[in-house]
Amino acid sequence: MNKTGIKNIIKLLKSNEGSFMNYLEEIIANISGNRVHIQTHNFPDPDAIACAYGLSELLKAKGVEAEICYKGNIERTVTAKMVGLLNIKVKEYTNPDEFNEGDEIILVDAQKGNSNIVDMNGQEIICIDHHPIYDPVDYRFSDIRPDVGACASIIATYYFDNNIDMPENVATALLYGVKMDTADMKRGVTQLDLDMFYKMYMMADRDILSELDSSVLHYDDIKAYKDAFSTIDIREDVCFACAGYECKEALIAAICDFTLTLDGVNLSIVYSPKQDGIKISIRSSGKYLSGVITMNALKGIGTGGGHDNMAGGYVSYWRPDGEKISEAEVLKIEQEIKTRFLKEAGIE
C-alpha cells in the first residue's frame, strides 16, 4: 500500500475516533433550530425519563430548549415518583396531531417503528437507544448500542466525555435509570454500565435514591398481583400469567420480574388484555433469549422484541381491514400466544 493510501486510512480512523468522542457535538449539529422534542417510548420507565432529562439539561446548556414528551399515563408508578422528587418537567401527548410536521424529535430509549412508541407528526432526526435494531431508519444521527444495559449509561457518557459538570438531580436520575434497567446491576450489565454507575454514585442524592427504592406498590395494584397469581400456568420452565384487564404497563413488567423468581422458572411471560390489544412483558433468567423468542413468537400476529433478558410485545385486536376481532377470537389469541412462545422455547 502506498503512502497516500496509508494516510487516508489514518485520516478515516481519526475521523471515526473523533465522531465517537463527540457524540454530543454531533447531536447539537443535527438540530436545525433552538427547540426540539425529546420523545421516550410509551408509558416510560425510569431509564427512559432519566435519559430524556439528562439529554434535555445538556441541550439547555447549549442553548437548545427541549421538551420531554411521551404517550401513556405514568400516574401511580415509580416513574411518576421520580419525576416528582426530581422536579422533572414532562408532558404527556395523546394525539400525534399535537405535533407539527416541522417539529424535530429526538428519540431516547426507543426507535421509530417499534410497537412501543407512537409515531408523532414531526421529524425523528436523532435516535439514542440501547435496544436491538429491527427496522433500520435513516436518522440524521444515531447512537444505538444494543450491548449496553441501560440507555442512561449512554447519556451519562456525554457528560463525562465532554467534561461537563453533571447536576446532582441529573446524576440521581441517570443512576436510578441504570439501577432499574439492569435490575440493580444483575441483568445485562456491561463495563460501561459499571463505569457510569461508579462515577455517578458519589454525585447522586442518595436520600432520594433511597426513597425511590422504597415500595411504590399501591393498594389497587394488589388486585393485579392476585389476578396474575391465580392464572399462573407453568409449562416445564416457562411461566405464563395474566395480570388482568387494562393492567398498567409498569405493573405488568414488575409482575413479570416477580414470577421469574419462582423456583424452576427460566422464562416468564405476563400479559394484560387491553381495549385494543394484548400487552406482553417477557423476562428470562439467561437460558432463553427473550428478544429473539418474542420477535419470532409474535411474527404475523403482532410485534415484539428486546434484549436477551427482557422484552416486550403487543398483539392488536384490529385486523388490517379495520375490523375488530370478536371476544371469542380474543380468547383464541391468548392461547395462540402461549402456544407460539412454547414452540420458540422448544416445548411442545
From TrEMBL:
InterPro entries (UniProt xref): DDH_dom, DHH_sf, DHHA1_dom, Oligoribo/pAp-PDE_c-di-AMP_PDE
Domain DDH: 36-178
Organism (species): Lachnospira eligens (strain ATCC 27750 / DSM 3376 / VPI C15-48 / C15-B4) (Eubacterium eligens)
Domain DHHA1 residue range list: 244-317
GO molecular function: nucleic acid binding
Residues in coiled coil: none
Residues in the signal sequence: none
Protein name, UniProt field: DHH family phosphoesterase
